Amino acid sequence: MEYPKYESLQLDYPAPRVLRIKLSRGKVNAMDYQLHKDIADIWRLVDRDPDISVAIVTGDGAYFSAGGDFDADGKAAADYNVMLDMMKDARNIVANMMDCNKPIISAINGPAAGGGLAVALLADISIASKTAKLVDAHTRLGVAAGDHAALIWPILCGMAKAKFYLLTCRPLTGAEAERIGLVSMAVDAEELESTAIEVAAELANGAQTGIRFTKMAMNGWLKQAWPIFESSLALEQLSFMGPDLHEGMASHLEKRPPRFNPRSPI
Question: How many domains, in total, are found in the chain?
């Protein structure tokens, strides 16, 4: 099957019937407009590819994906149509990964945040380097955690841990993420690639009907929580219209603590 020549994705085949997708967008693989759109759309093609049984998604270089691109976020905050387009892509990332009939493995090789973290944790099997840094920093930027977290974090690691990390924006290492159940496993950095390929090959050689039906059935838990995701995504976009986002972005660029207004109408 022919895949497009993506601007922001590198594709290769590390094992028979295994497609590896590398996020590749600058030094940190930031989720700019193009990467957001490409990683949302590719899962529909993987679903229809008769020559692929498993997909691995990882980052090119030292980062998995550092999350949102500030240029794209700034445009979304200033342009209603851009905001709606990015909201649609954010929804499609989650929906298309869930609906892809092939199992998806994430190999979290380095820092993962924002939309990149959504891709990492929505994979059916997530394998992290023990030293990888995972952080959902939405509230640090002044917006609701809407990419994926309200949907899947409570299911993966429980409500108490999910609220703690999502409200405080504290980072986790891959090792800590494994300890609390946020990722499937954590391995030494030098073992990450080989482990992901080994697991992918095992799945590719398994009974495809049983594997795909099992994914379909277990994703029923996520589909039950779908209205929660839709709400979180809408609240994230609503947050883009307020003053906190501008202060959050400015403080990040200026490398200083944010000075949010302590009073909120909510």
Answer: 1
